[in-house]
Amino acid sequence: MANSCILDIGANNGEFILPLAARLPWMQFLGVEPIPELFDILEAKRTELNLPAVQFRRLAIDEVPGRARFNVSRHADLGVSSLLDFDTTSLQKNEYWQGRSDLYFDEEIEVEVVRLDTLLETAGFDHVDFIKIDAQGVDLRVLASLGKYLSAVDGGMLEVSTTRNSVLYQNEPLLHDVLNFLAAHNFEPYAIKSNDPAGAEVNVFFNRHGVDWQAMEQRLQLRGIALYDGRHYWHVPSPLPELPAEASAPVVHQHVARARHLVAENAASWARVVHWKKEVARLGREKDALTVQLAEQKNELTARRTVAPAPLGDNVPLAAELVHMQQNEQSMRLEIAALRDSTSWRVTAPLRALKSLISR
């Protein structure tokens, strides 16, 4: 009997995998997220929601395993972070991308990269009920890395740019590449939904030939999961009493886009809070350990001076040891001072102050 799971590649803050796992507690879930603070958020939410059937891995997925540079965008919902670089020509020429203010990277990190077939084998799965991929430009490579397990996938969804003029990243595939790949590997699309008002990117939903996608959708309770349902930009829901009656569809979309941006900013802020809380704890532990070591060194120095039977000048080995211990003491004082003067310590000062106020 197959050991099945639902995969979420590019889990971000868990908007897909966590609510679905709560609906299907009898199923196994495996999520992948390479950004450390988002991974921490996912683990914290998994514990808080008591979802033991969910596993997370801090990895990136690609066809070639190893170590790789990963571009991190620490604003909005960190959602444009990618293994790929931005296509600057497209960003400058495409009218839709020109209007986006979040298309830049803040830093680079190094991440572990594995193939998806290797990950499945390591985790003990040999069948995929559904795979959701949002890997920012490498979605098709992620799917291809399933290798022999492609035939064990019932269905899934991935994101792709529609035309060469609308690409977001360098060397990313296009919609026709995805459709050709699906056809060549016994899949067929059952829906294509725009991911933005301009149709620059779309989500392609697919099923393996012979799999009833509607039955799959019902069995896995996918409807009602926001990231699965998608965004129907051609339809303006009603009623919207907070908008003027004469509001046009573009105005509605602007309001919706602004609301989504605020939600994303909130998620990113929470991710940063969790990250810096861990930094506060780590730095506090380091400071406490250094302080204890310093006190021990001082006590040992005092004891040595008290019991010394002869002038230090007449006891060369002891004198050398005392000098060495004094140097250690000075080194520890400098290390503590450097720790307090570090950027991380200064950045987390407001959190420590808040923690102090709360504990009173």
List keywords for this structure.
alpha/beta; 17% strand; seven-stranded mixed sheet; Rossmann fold; 360 residues; three-stranded mixed sheet; elongated
Would you write up a description of this structure?
The protein has 360 residues and is α/β, with parallel strands linked by helices. The chain has two domains: 4-235, Vaccinia Virus protein VP39 (Rossmann fold); 266-359. Helix content is 46%, strand content 17%. The chain contains 13 helices and ten strands. The chain has helices at residues 17-23, 36-49, 88-93, 95-98, 116-123, 139-144, 175-184, 213-219, 226-229, 249-307, 316-341, 343-347, 349-359; strands at 4-9, 29-32, 54-57, 60-61, 66-72, 107-114, 127-133, 155-161, 187-194, 201-208. The strands form two sheets. A seven-stranded mixed beta sheet has the order 3-2-1-7-8-10-9, sandwiched between helices. Strands 4-6-5 form a three-stranded mixed beta sheet. The radius of gyration is 27 Å and the shape is elongated. Mean pLDDT is 83; it is low at 235-241.
